[in-house]
Specification:
The complex is a heterodimer of chains A (169) and B (538).
Chain A lengths: L5 E8 L4 H14 L3 E6 L9 E9 L12 E6 L5 H4 L3 E8 L15 H10 L6 H11 L5 H22 L4
Helix pairs in contact in A: 1-4, 3-5
Chain B lengths: L1 H6 L2 E5 H11 L4 E4 L7 H9 L3 E3 L3 H13 L3 E7 H6 L1 H7 L7 E8 L13 H7 L3 E2 L4 H18 L3 E6 H5 L1 E5 L17 H4 L3 H25 L3 E3 L2 E9 L1 H9 L3 E6 L1 E3 L3 H10 L2 E5 L5 H8 L18 H9 L21 H11 L3 E3 L24 H12 L2 H4 L2 E6 H17 L6 E7 L28 H7 L4 E5 L5 H13 L3 E7 L6 H15 L1
Parallel strand pairs in B: 2-3, 2-4, 4-5, 5-7, 6-7, 10-11, 10-13, 14-15, 15-16, 16-18, 17-18
Antiparallel strand pairs in B: 1-8, 6-12, 9-11
The chains are: A alpha/beta (169), B alpha/beta (538).
Chain lengths: 169, 538
């Protein structure tokens, strides 16, 4: 059997860019030649309710859904959604939450989703160019600067976080 | 050469996008449908790729237009969510009898678990009931290939084909290699009279039904021999028969098991299933939703195990598949409740519900964003059945409630829902008016907001937002003979709106109130479309 896929759950509230963030992550994994599946529920969730999106990548991925308690990473964009999604994370999995980012350092506060991807990026084996390319393709041009800034702020935070939690992966 | 390479390039696509791409690659002449999660993106993507796509007022009309396309010899795609097929069921059951010249592909996007639906009906039952061959993709690659195969099957046997998808196939993104399958080019559109084939009067329908059953028997033989089914050899101690998304969960939950994955689930490859079941010690059927496969297998005398009843409800996932394999029927952990959706701050529907609640109305409601009026803080919607039901249900309540209660009944539905199936309800209101009169409020926010801002005949713009004929609700209501027809902005003129509803409730007459204000999320785009269309006109 192939090695197990890496499981990432991205969660937040409708309108926070959960789906956008998972699109970017899935594209990065895809451009690196891995099998990728990404899944979420649309619809009612667009009206400000809880939203979560599963991204799985590896040599071969079957089910598009991250099984409960098997997420290697849980990225939560809204502080009050951490508890709601906590069960997704496996023991020893890494929680990436908005409190890691100093919001005032972001030139656009809405880029918090991308800043958190920056944190995540330090834990994943993809080159930084794959991330910046995917950001460019998925976001409108006038928001590129703000998002690249947010991404690098997150990436710097991720570096610190990795030093403290890295051994668990 | 470059073209071929480009065509075979890999892409990360949703199942919906993959269906659209296959429709485009195979020269589908027209895509029709009515928006409905999780099917909406198919036509939108088809249009973006360069295909011709149209929103119809509802699924029945969409199906009928598609049937006409198939009668001409061309290829038609019609898309809808599962409950949409109920609306289109009337043409479905009879078009199955008809010998088609072109291809007719019907996409039914089912929603097990009801992420965004009022029920979790399993539309595989429709294939069986109507006698329509059915394919079930399990990921985006299959969504692409099965769309092409569906066209091939439709043209070879001159029958409509049901492409049955589910939420996790429609909305999951997986890798697709394009151009893996080539099918013959479409026929030239033309018309020849063929009365016995297309005119379903009893004299012609009787032999047509016999012909359909014969065709289905032929397809069943083909499905056994060469259908899009896959055998994965594994342990002889455990064999699993599965289809659609459940296949992916099975592969994850039981990688060592032998698996018979069914791609065409009507008519079933019963002999393959029989041989497979005989080749393993334990044969279990893993399917999402109703026990459709397990019942068919048992009826054919194939001994298979099914899933416990508790797994009929909701979606499957790899953990639930493991539980089924273990025979585990202990209660499942309930997920931590998330934040429920709510009407957007500043949404015009908010004003309407505030007023209806204040006036103590009994509200027969309907399907759309405004269904959220049932939740706190409003709790001002008393029923939701199906698209358009607000009017009929409201009338029924008026007919039967004691006068004091009857006069407080209001029917509320959205603009797109009104066009979809509210117009006949309005005709009923004029034709069989309750003694106490009635009040219909059309929440006209200028878009099909719930499914992601699609156009409809009331916006006067087509799927790609170009200007077209516009159904004007107030004109329509007046032309049907409703005397009290009012148009008002409920957010801008809240006080006046309240007075108006009160006045209408007090009259023993029929009133139609059109609460008109653009959806907050769509308003900017609507202004932009209007500006572009005006520029083009000048």
């Amino acid at each position: 059997m192939n090695s197990k896929p890496t499981n990432v759950v991205i969660a937040g509230l409708g309108g926070q860019g959960v789906i956008k963030a998972s699109d970017i992550l899935a594209e990065v994994a895809f451009s690196s030649g891995l099998d990728v599946k990404k899944s979420e529920l649309h619809g009612m969730s667009q009206r400000g309710g809880s939203v979560s999106s599963d991204v799985r990548f590896g040599e071969r991925v079957f089910s598009p859904m991250v099984p409960e308690g098997e997420a290697d990473f849980l990225v939560v964009i809204a502080p009050d959604q951490v508890q709601v999604n906590a069960a997704a994370l496996r023991q020893g999995g890494i929680l990436i939450e908005p409190s890691l980012i100093d919001e005032s350092s972001l030139s656009n506060k809405k880029s918090i989703n991308v800043a958190l991807l920056g944190v995540l990026s330090r834990h994943l084996p993809f080159p930084v160019e794959a991330w910046t390319d995917a950001l460019g393709r998925n976001l409108p041009e006038k928001l590129h600067d703000a998002n690249l800034q947010a991404f690098s702020i997150g990436r710097a935070v991720g570096e610190t976080l990795k030093q403290t939690t890295g051994k668990e992966r | 050469m470059e073209d071929l390479e480009q065509k075979q390039a890999l892409a990360l696509l949703s199942g919906d996008e993959a269906v659209a791409m296959a429709a485009f690659d195979s020269g589908v002449t027209l895509g029709t449908g009515y928006p409905g999660t999780p099917s909406t993106e198919i036509l939108e993507t088809f249009e973006t790729l360069g295909g011709k796509a149209q929103w119809s007022p509802n699924e029945k009309v969409a199906m009928e237009v598609a049937i006409g396309v198939a009668f001409s010899g061309a290829r038609a795609l019609v898309t809808m969510k599962h409950v949409g097929l109920n609306v289109a069921a009337d043409p479905l059951f009879t078009v199955a009898y008809i010998r088609l010249d072109g291809a007719l592909i019907i996409v039914s996007a089912d929603d097990p678990g009801m992420a965004s639906s009022q029920n979790e009906q399993d539309n595989r039952r429709y294939a069986l009931a109507a006698g329509v061959p059915m394919l079930e993709p399990s990921d985006s690659q299959e969504a692409y290939e099965f769309t092409l195969r569906a066209i091939e099957i439709s043209e070879r046997w001159q029958v409509p084909v049901l492409l049955r998808m589910t939420t996790r196939v429609c909305h999951s993104k997986t890798i697709v290699r394009r151009g893996t399958l080539t099918i013959p080019p479409p026929h030239e559109a033309h018309f020849e009279h063929d009365f016995p084939s297309r005119v379903m009067i009893p004299a012609y329908a009787k032999p047509a039904h016999r012909r359909l059953r014969k065709t289905l028997a032929e397809i069943a033989v083909w499905n056994d021999e060469a259908g899009p089914n896959e055998l994965i050899k594994g342990l002889s101690s455990l064999g699993i028969i599965t289809s659609g998304i459940a296949f992916q969960h099975v592969r994850e939950a039981a990688p060592e098991a032998s698996v018979l994955k069914l791609g065409m689930t009507y008519p079933l490859p019963l002999e393959r299933m029989r041989a497979f079941a005989a080749s393993v010690e334990r044969c279990i059927v893993i399917e999402e939703g109703d026990p459709y496969l397990v019942e068919a297998a048992r009826t054919a005398g194939i001994a298979v195990e099914g899933k416990p009843e508790m797994y009929r409800f909701g979606e499957l996932n790899s953990a639930r598949v493991r539980r089924i394999l273990d025979g585990d029927t202990s209660p499942e952990a309930k997920p931590v409740p998330g934040k429920p959706p709510a009407l957007c701050p500043g949404c015009p529907h908010r004003s309407v519900y505030t007023v209806l609640k204040d006036l103590g109305c009994i509200v027969a409601g309907d399907i759309g964003c405004y269904s959220l009026g049932v939740l706190p803080p409003f709790q001002a919607m008393d029923s939701l059945v199906c698209m358009g039901a607000a009017i009929g249900v409201g009338l029924g309540l008026r007919h039967s409630l004691p006068p004091e209660e009857a006069k407080r009944v209001v029917s509320v539905l959205g603009d797109s829902t009104f066009v979809h199936s509210g117009i006949t309800g309005l005709v009923e209101m004029v034709y069989n008016p309750p003694e106490s009169g009635h009040v219909l409020v059309i929440l006209d926010n200028g878009t099909t907001a719930m499914t992601g801002m699609q156009e409809h005949p009331g916006t006067g713009r087509t799927l790609d937002h170009a200007k077209t004929g516009k159904v004007v609700f107030e004109d329509l209501a007046r032309s049907l003979g409703v005397r009290n027809v009012h148009v008002i902005d409920p957010a801008q003129e809240l006080g006046k709106f309240q007075e108006l509803i009160q006045t209408c409730l007090d009259k023993k007459e029929l009133s139609v109130v059109i609460a008109r204000r653009d959806c907050l999320l769509a308003a900017r785009s609507i202004r932009e479309y209007e500006r572009c269309n005006e520029q083009q006109a000048n």
